[in-house]
TrEMBL record:
Protein name: EGF-like domain-containing protein
Source organism of this protein record: Bracon brevicornis
Length: 34
């Protein structure tokens, strides 16, 4: 579960060991930034 303290979830990436690993081209805490 990669839900952050502010309630947002991992987007545009995969969750491994409670860390969001972004897909290529995405960034930010939850990979929400293109």
């Amino acid at each position: 579960d990669c839900t952050k303290e502010d309630g947002t979830k991992c987007q545009n990436g995969v969750c491994l060991d409670s860390v969001c690993h972004c897909n290529d081209g995405f960034g930010g805490c939850n990979c929400q930034v293109p």
